[in-house]
Amino acid sequence: MTAITLAAPLSGWAMPLQEVPDPAFSQGLVGVGMAIDPTANELRSPCDGVVLSVHRARHACTVRAASGAEVLLHLGVDTVGLKGEGFTAHVQDGQAVKVGDPLISFDMDLVGSRAQSLVSMMVVVNDGFTVDGQSVNREIAAGEPAMTVSGGGAAGAPADAAVVLSSPGAATAESAQCTVPLRIAHGLHARPAAALVAAAKAHSGPVAIQCRGRNANAKSVVALMGLGTVLGDELTVRAEGPGARGVVESIVALIDSGLGDPLVEGAGAPPAHPATAATAAPVAPTAAEEEIGPPFTAGEEVLLKGTIAVPGQAVGSVVRRFRRVARVEEQGAGAAVEEPRLRQALDRIVAGLTDSAQRMPEHAAIFQAHRELLDDPELLDGALADIGAGKSAEWAWQRAARQQADTLAALPDPRMAERAADLRDLEQQVLAALSGEAPSVGLAGLPEGSIVLADEILPSELAGVPAGRLAGIGMAHGGPTSHAVILAAALGLPTVVALGRQAERVPDGAPVVIDGNRGELHVFPPDAALSATRNAVAARAARREENRRTAGEVCRMADGTRIEVFANLGRVGDAAPAVAEGAEGCGLLRTEFLFLERQSAPTEEEQYQQYQQIADAMGGRPVIIRTLDVGGDKPLSYLPLPKEENPVLGLRGVRVGLREPGLLRTQIRAILRVRPAGVCRIMVPMITSPSELQAVRAMVDEERAALGRPEPIELGAMIEVPAAALTADRISVAADFLSIGTNDLTQYVLAMDRGNPHVAAQLDALHPGVLRLIRQTVAGAAGLGRMVAVCGGSASDPMAAPLLIGLGVTELSATPAVIADLKAFIRTLRLEDCRRVAEQALAADSADEVRRLAAEAWPAR
Ligand code: PEP
Ligand code: MG
């Protein structure tokens, strides 16, 4: 039995729990402890320990002390409804903390005016502990001894320890379950969770709540809060032991009545009647497990059609990187065989991860995250339980991993959703190890001349590929403007996406031609086709070498019209090669690559160093730095944004910047510090209205004044939202220049998700609807003499370039690998021809028709 002293987590007036204006706390339903009416805005850790969970509304968090005591710290009363507004979390789930470490800070004015009370609670929520010596009815300073917690050891089992129930389907003498929709606005936060726990504790046997495949002990407030439930979730209440049916019925009635919170009308269907004995939920075959046919065999010539992503052709041998979809046998050979098999497979994966972390220290965080997931006892326990019930190691592992991945994916916290992707990756790796295949991590070990075929490649995988090994990429899924494709383009790798699942039939080592100009994968091509493509690739390489000789010269059309050809960059290392290709500046620095794959945001100094190095490598040429474009499909682990039904239509680009001004201001300061002043311009993504740009300009001016930088800096708007294109004349009042992001503009104009393989073939920036908006943008900018650039993918498309120029665009910012060829092509063009064909294109009916017009006008590209 150990006793520990908890320090006051806040400064303020310390008071007995009974005085808290919330009956769940004052009656001790949540736990035992004390309260503080705060006078300072920072919640600090009361002990050394580990953060078990930070509530998604950031108003509460639980810390587990070394003794096992779980301390819930809850800021204010009725603060869950603020949905995180006014709260900033400084810690993440699983993080080790020391006493006094800041956990959450809050805006006292905002929270105080919107919540019922600022009185904040510190309670121990798990059984087996007693609390005494509360230092109350006095002013207390954060860090002072506040109360003593005794207990631990065997008695102090973690409150969220997995509840042990018979596996679903195993009929026990007395078991019951029932599913009921949750109809309260903020899910199971502290108060309703406490009410549910009180009802569950009245039952002597185990009681569990299941939600989206995840189980929680119904006798633990922490476990219930950790389920991350939201309005409309289906909760399955399960109990075992004498009286199981009665307790299930009473908990269901309690949930149905709102657990003390007001009911939201119309949310969820009424509960079904309690059913005795749960039924097993078999792992249903997913669409991915449908039959696709046997592997193609040598001599079986096949042409697979996909969508053009990165132009160019390549010949090579296939390296498959498909996630494993083979159906696994359910029945095992008994636990004595299956359990050691699973443990050995896991050991192999762990060894592989350790090795990878050493070989690729820059990606060590990814491998460490995978290791942590493999160490999760719930995952292993779930699999071992199934093995104990006679299942095979493969079946048990797959089921446990999928259940956890689905649960994580459904949580509103984007950090959790990312971990679901990691789990799916691990599911495959373990299945591969069980089948005796070598575990494959990333694309690091590829032989030279590989053409990788995969469901979809991750940007992080491409980042680790040694130069020269990878010749081309084919993806069964994916869209033509995904970030992996953008990286592939930067690496000059011909890429075809949306090939469909037939691509999975191509065996390892098969000779193929990947044709990024046509969007095709030619499998087992005849020798003549292989050598014709090799010759075409060599001729193209020779032409490119030729073009590179003159690439450094400024770009003028045949009639003398000046067109600037800039480069899109993502990292410091991209800059020098881009200049060698003839880049006359950087028209888009995608700064999010500096922010992704890390645990915290880069500091101002780190950013400044990167931007300065890029500016230096560009040798005085202009550098347009885009402010952070995250959110949507690019979540940051350290920037929790609310879960959105349609993230691409939600918090993205400047919307995130204005919501998290601290992040944006840091970036602005880093850009303003780059020397010589005037070399950098700032560009803001996803602008919809002039007011957004004005708000950013105000920040820029304030930061300039604070830094004592007298020189102004040009501020541009990205035109990616149709409303911005339509009101370009108004945006131009606020902007110094405009740059059209055709990737997003196209997805929003055509209502086609740029990452959706089902619409990838129609997602074409040469659709006349997109071209008309480009014309409108140029016309709107012309009144105020603003320059219009294009920095989306169509600037790199030789079919699109003459049309963009014909529409009045004067700067193309392209992927570095195409710049030399693009400049050489532009030098052959005449403005009047470009204008004429652009006029015809505006009157066309489809992107295909536009492409035909361009191909007729400029056949020898
Ligand atoms: C675009 O949308 O065209 C663009 C350049 O931005 P991103 O591709 O980074 O979204
Ligand atoms: Mg964009």
How is this structure best described in words?
This protein has 861 residues and is of the alpha/beta class. It has 4 domains: 3-151, Glucose Permease (Domain IIA) (Distorted Sandwich), CATH 2.70.70.10; 174-272, Histidine-containing Protein, Chain: A; 297-530, 3-Layer(bba) Sandwich (Glucose Oxidase, domain 1), CATH 3.50.30.10; 563-857, Phosphoenolpyruvate-binding domains (TIM Barrel), CATH 3.20.20. The chain has 27 helices and 35 strands. The chain has an 8-stranded antiparallel β-sheet with strand order 9-5-6-7-11-3-2-13, with no helix packed on it. Strands 20-27-26-22-23-24-25-21 form an 8-stranded mixed β-sheet. Helix 8 (377-388) packs antiparallel against helix 9, helix 9 (393-410) packs antiparallel against helix 10 and helix 14 packs parallel to helix 16. The relative contact order is 0.07. The protein binds phosphoenolpyruvate and magnesium ion (MG). The site of magnesium ion has 5 residues, from helix 22.
